[in-house]
Amino acid sequence: GKRRGAVSSWLRSDTMAHYRFNNLLGAPYRGGNLCMSGNHLLTSVGNRVMEVDLQMSSSQTLPCENLTEIRCIAVSPTGSHMISFDTDGRALLVNLRKRVVLHHMNFKGKVSHCEFSPCGRSFAVCVGKLVQIWATPTMLKEFAPFRLLRTYGGMYDEATCLAWSPDSRWIIVGSKDLTARIYSANHMEGYVPPTLAGHREQLCYVSFAGAGGDAAYTVSKDGALFEWRLVDETEDDVTRARRGDKGQRGGRDSLRGGDGVTVRRWRMEGKHFFHMPAKLTCAAYHPGTGMLCAGFGHGVFTLHRLSPGSFEVVHTLSISQQKVSACQWNETGDWIALGCARLGQVVVWEWQSEAYVYKQQGHYFDVYMCAYAPDGSMIATAADDNKVKVWSTATGSCFITFTEHKAPVAAVTFAPSGHAVVSASLDGTVRAFDLMRYRNFRTLTSPEPAQFISLAVDPSGEVVCAGSQDTFQIHIWSMKTGRMLDILSGHQGPVTALSFSPESALLASGSWDKSVRLWDVYEGRGQTDILPHAHDVLAVAFRPDGKQVAVSTLDGQVFLWNPNDAQLQGTIEGRRDMAGGKVIGDLRSATAKASKSFKTLAYSADGALLLAGGNGKYVCMYDVDGRALLKKFPLSKSKALDGTIERLDSNRVTDAGPMDLLPASDSEEDDEGYRRGDRGRGAVGSGGAGGKPPRARA
Fold first, then answer.
1. If DSSP states are collapsed to H, E and C, what string results for 562-607?
2. 366: which strand partners?
């Protein structure tokens, strides 16, 4: 399917028509925060969570889904539970070991940050201007497993970050009102939360330092790091400090007392600045090693060693030209995980040896086509970002990326031997890549410029055919010599589909001229039969025995033909099966919209089942003999994607138009990927990244 940087793989169980979700390839990271638990890295990919085993360099996507994009995730100290929050404030509590959802909860507000206490008995969340402390649900069956313990306010703007003290007694919270506050996790009579002020921009990271939690660091977006320390002072010292040094603002951390009473007060001990040309976007501090990692908007991250009064630069490196969205240390402080949401990139770097532990990057634009290797061990993807990537189905990782194409890649397939992958592009070339030496060993071109949008390789692997969208011709080359063998003309529209018969010398081609033509490529007799249709042809597929060809048309129907005598064997009505799902901006419900169509077809190995997918949220499985629908597989439940919502929500339609298409306000511009005007942009399956050029069409 055409999904931004994502290919969903499904695992078939014993029952023929029963498939379950297996993995999500092509999108290692799309936004939110990162979590490290032991040797495992957890990243949010749209409305799903991906778990990466850093020792085995393999990834697995959890089967649970949130209703919208995941904004933040948190893992318990034992690594057994995870809680994920979407952009609407709905949460899922998941058992990571068994990969099952334990509880659902709606926090009824935007949750910007969440973190479990070091003891694991509670967790704190930032919901708007409030900080809530909840008891961690137990394994027992309860009517209301989420139990609210404390709620703190006092902030004048949204809370952005929080951190627990090592003893789980205190919480430091940063806010957009340029201040940080320290709250008590337990009830204390007469306690006044101290306010740590002095920053000039909103805080993006806070943390306690020291084993006793008597020191803290606050980091703001302008690259300022303030160091705070809890000191013992008398009331007279506090009064003199307020009169003489008004720049170092802090707060008391005890009950109010009279003159001469010793109080504990947070005092600023130092100011440090990163001096970078871009804004600071994320930061992470590791108390054990005293290392601070900071990411910036121009793709640079720095490592500093912090100690009382010291701010020592260790490394300054760059991973891309886009902003670093998130960073996180592992438990030992040896590895640092970095994520770039706009590029779909995640990197785990070992700072002592200066080596990569794990590095993955998805497609930047839509995935237009994917293909399985003959042995099922690899999947090749072609995308609008001019790249071809090959993924391992066992590990879920991309092990090679080919960047030779200069325009969007429209088709990709494997050679029958499985040792090469062939791709066709709008740049007018068909390229063959060797999967043993990882090189482009053959480049096939046409005498006149053409934009290729379809591709087929014969069962022997010696003949390659490509169809064009501007010249309406089919070009045939020899794989061994690279010479052009023939040019087939006859179509009056773009050639959108090509398929070789596995058992005979027939090539089927489908076009927008509402016809499927059968060609004899080997004997050189040219066109043999024409299969007429009432609508444009979008996909063509031969049955494995070569005795039937399936054709999908623009009106949502699938026609089954006998290629030997050009007789119609049956028709599958798929218009109602694909119906459902409205896009942003529609003023009608999905049930009132026009029918959709299948853009890709695939037979099962025995030819008894036919899989069909297109511009809808379902993949449909049909019984070929009975022409009946067996099952529909939903690709995603995310409400942020176009085509997943069935009913029209009139509350999100205003006089100015749909709320999701309105420009974001100034206060929402900082939250990239979650802006109201960019709903679903960073999600898997969205329409692509910003600034994407329009795809050339005939």
1. ECCCCEEEEEEECHHHHCCCECCCCCCCHHHCCCCCEEEEEECCCC
2. 4
Counting DSSP H helices and E strands in the chain, the numbers are 2, 58
Residues 450 and 68: their CA atoms lie apart, in Å, by 41
Q: Is it the case that residue 651 has pLDDT exceeding 70?
A: no
pLDDT tens digits, residue range 416-453?
A: 999 999 999 999 999 999 999 999 999 999 999 899 99
Give me the amino acid identity at 209.
A
Q: Are 421 and 463 in contact (CB under 8 A)?
A: no
* 524 phi and psi angles, rounded to 5 deg: 75, 20
pLDDT of 140 reads 74
Instruction: Give CA 630 to chain center in angstroms.
Output: 30
Residue 85 has pLDDT above 60, yes or no: yes
The DSSP code sequence of 188-203 is: -TT----EE---SS-E
Residue 618: exposure state from Cβ atoms within 10 A (0-12, 13-18, ≥19): buried
At 693 the pLDDT is 44
Confidence of residue 187 (pLDDT cuts 50, 70, 90): confident
Instruction: Please tell me the distance from the alpha carbon of residue 55 to that of residue 128, in angstroms, as a whole number.
Output: 38
What whole-number distance in Å separates Cα of residue 133 and Cα of residue 125?
7
pTM of the model: 0.84
**Averaged pLDDT of the chain:** 85
Q: Are 154 and 181 in contact (CB under 8 A)?
A: yes
User: Looking up tokens 């409030």, which residue turns up?
Assistant: 130
Given a cut of 90, whether residue 687 has pLDDT beyond it is no
Distance, CA of 448 to CA of 453 (rounded, Å): 16
Which positions ≥6 away from 194 have C-beta within 8 Å? 181, 182, 250, 251, 252, 253, 265, 266
- For residue 197, what are the CA distances in angstroms to 217, 263, 471, 599? 12, 19, 67, 58
Structure tokens at 478: 């020899």
Cα–Cα–Cα angle for 409, 413, 417, rounded to 5 degrees: 145
Give the largest Cα separation in the chain, rounded: 107
Residues 6+ apart with CB under 8 A from 538: 496, 497, 510, 552, 553, 554, 597, 598, 599, 614
* Token pair listed for 375: 């042995």
Q: How far is the C-alpha of 657 from the C-alpha of 661, rounded, in Å?
A: 7
**Cα separation, 94 vs 155, whole angstroms:** 31
Lowest-pLDDT range, 30-44, 69-83, 261-275? 261-275
Whole-number pLDDT of residue 211: 76
The size of the chain, in residues, is: 698
- For 591-599, what is the mean pLDDT? 66
Percent of the chain that is helix, strand, coil (3-state, to 5): 5, 50, 45
